[in-house]
Specification:
435 residues; 8-stranded mixed β-sheet; binds guanosine-5'-triphosphate; binds magnesium ion; Signal recognition particle receptor FtsY; GTPase activity; SRP/SRP_N
Amino acid sequence: MFDGLKKKLDRFRKDVEDTAEEKAEAAAAEADDDAVTDAESPADDSEAAEPAAVESDSEETAASTSDTPEPAPEPSDEAQSETTPADAGDSGDASADTTDAASESADADAAADADEPESLASDAAKAALAEQEADDSSSAGRLKRAAAFATGKVVIEEEDLEDPLWELEMALLQSDVEMQVAEEILDTIRDKLVGETRKQVQSTGQLVEEALHDALYEVISVGQFDFDKRIQEADKPVTLIFTGINGVGKTTTIAKLARYFEKQGLSTVLANGDTYRAGANEQIQEHADALDKKLIAHEQGGDPAAVIYDAVEYAEAHDIDVVLGDTAGRLHTSNDLMAQLEKIDRVVGPDLTIFVDEAVAGQDAVERSRKFNEAAAIDGAILTKADADSNGGAAISIAYVTGKPILFLGVGQGYDHLERFDPEAMVERLLGEDE
Ligand SMILES: Nc1nc2c(ncn2[C@@H]2O[C@H](COP(=O)(O)OP(=O)(O)OP(=O)(O)O)[C@@H](O)[C@H]2O)c(=O)[nH]1
Ligand SMILES: [Mg+2]
């Protein structure tokens, strides 16, 4: 079930993992470079300090003109410290230069001391980072990455997610996930992953998995309520009306629910509100006979609201717990379809109006759920034909788009082929956690 989408979600997980791995390697190389540069730098710095010292010395020599040309000083530390005070008198600039050069050279010596050749590359990286961090804030990102590498961890940043998230968005849209829902999922993932980077996570795969799980769960679980409890606790009879376009599986689902409620110790009566289609009575009668349930039906062309009203009266008279009201999926116009629902609402006041559509209808099912909800205020949805190969977009999107939960999945043509919709199980199925 939902295999296509499952593969795409797995692709995303791998994409981010690969990105993180590449990054870890890059950080490793960077840390190595830093260590090498650091080991070399003392020599470099003292070489650089030499000309400065010589320069200031020769200036001093030129300024004082006379005396001793011989002690053309060696570029040693002693020579520098000797010349500096003398310098201070006649040239402030030169003195400042010399002092800088001297202190730089001293720093470099200290760094050289810290970096024994035997020390580990990661230690060298850490030492280098600690030293640089104080005065080089512009390279903070680079330092953080290298430090993360030195401690064996990988940091994911927003820019790393750009490409994988783009791919994921395309995958979601191709899988019929509604645009707004896809964006919500991406936002959640971005927030989760970028937020987590500060903690420097250990396993990228695990982190991505959690982010995907939470992002999917948040949209899929919208509006969930305890359906069984709600039915058990409601005043009897409870009236459920099933709506949706033709051929999606309304009548079959009603038959499955009659079986479902029976298992819960609840009695049912079926009502054929599909007075439009020829043969509708016969079809539902067959189910009623097979399940040993009472069917209330009128002549073709009758008023659906009147049929369901009669069924409610029958249930009250015979102490039946649940009325399952079918409706026609096709009328002359969609306005007629909505007018039918409004009249049922007015005349019967059903406890729950349930929208039925096919998982395989994808984006169309999502769009219809939105329209039916606007017109008739649905209380929940049932997705049929989830056993057929579907993209999964409808299952992911409908709750978020309507604000009403998916209650059941139809998973075959048999009466027992009905599953309670469990958002957690659905997410696990999509992420392959159950296999
Ligand atoms: N594979 C599969 N087939 C299903 C499922 N639910 C319904 N069907 C099949 O879908 C077809 C249409 O089902 P119906 O229950 O007649 O659909 P309907 O919405 O009542 O159709 P109309 O009364 O014409 O509006 C039938 O062949 C059902 O067996 C399901 O969950 N899985
Ligand atoms: Mg039907």
